[in-house]
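User: I'm putting together a teaching handout on how multi-component assemblies are represented. Below are the sequence lines for each component of a complex, exactly as they appear in our records. Could you produce the 3D structure of the whole assembly as structure tokens, so the students can see both representations side by side? Please keep the chain order the same as the input.
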Amino acid sequence: MKPTSKLNRFWGMLLLAACITLSMGTLAWSDSDKWNEGGSKNKSEGGKAGSWGQTTGVAVVTNKLYAAECSACHFAYQPGFLPERSWVKIMGSLGDHFGENAKLDEPTRVSIENYLRGHAADHLPNRFSTSFLRSIKADASPLRISETGYFIRKHDEIPARMVRDNPKVRSFANCASCHGGAEKGSFDEDAVRIPGFASWED
Amino acid sequence: MKHLWLIPMLLLAGGAQAAEAVVQAQIAQYEQQGAKGADAARGMAAWNEQHMQANMQKMVSCATCHGSNLSLAGEHVRTAKRIEPMAPSVNPERLTDPAKIEKWFGRNCEWTIGRDCTAQEKADFLAFIQSK
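Assistant: Of course. Below is the structure of the complete assembly, with chains in the same order as your input.
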């Protein structure tokens, strides 16, 4: 065998190794697509299946009792934003609900807690929910969605004047003030409109 | 056709009547729990009475969020959420659901006064709100 063909074989093996490495990597990337099979009906969820894009859809609120009781005071946060342990903690301390008294009669409380637990981030096959879940430490039970690492990362470029000091928003708790599709479970960055500010760009 | 305007008027009156029947039944219940009658003037005084709110570290009353004029919408002191007017004359939905009345007494008495309201206080509040 001539030295040149030996060299060619070396380069060939290297190319093959590179190809295998890349394809394994791609497999790992697309692995997370299994979260789409359980099927969020939301359009923005899974719409970019197979691409590296982020999904920004969460399963909508389906429980009428939860929607009625909780949205009497605030946005009805989709249960898929927090793990079950967080919802248990929240529903077990309604007497001091972020400084407010939000007590419910016991049958109503139990019914809503069961709904939230069953649809929590750790029980939903949803990529967006999984992003939140992964950003929460295993031993932590955050009470606020805005305390999760994923939320903080996604909002870290928004200055206080646009939210806290913005009289039309006032708090990150008011999702629907800027996310027009929030109630439908859609939190696409491109659809964000901050009241009082012409447009928000990265 | 020219009496069509009567329809909304009747609906409004129907709402107010619904509230009246509910309030009477509630007050009867409070009387069984020890209340002696229901006094709108006493209710109004209690509505505006100031109490120390532990979490807020400031003085609050019912009017802090609902306002003193029950015909106008209020605003939540912390979240700034709009609170629809309490007066049944402008908001016929008010005082028509006993469970809702009890739920909000339960929450708001504790938050505002720092304890449950007595049957007497509830009766007076209902008489006051109903009169608006």
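A couple of points students might notice: The first strand of chain B starts at residue 51 and ends at 53. Chain B touches chain A through 14 residues (CB under 8 Å).
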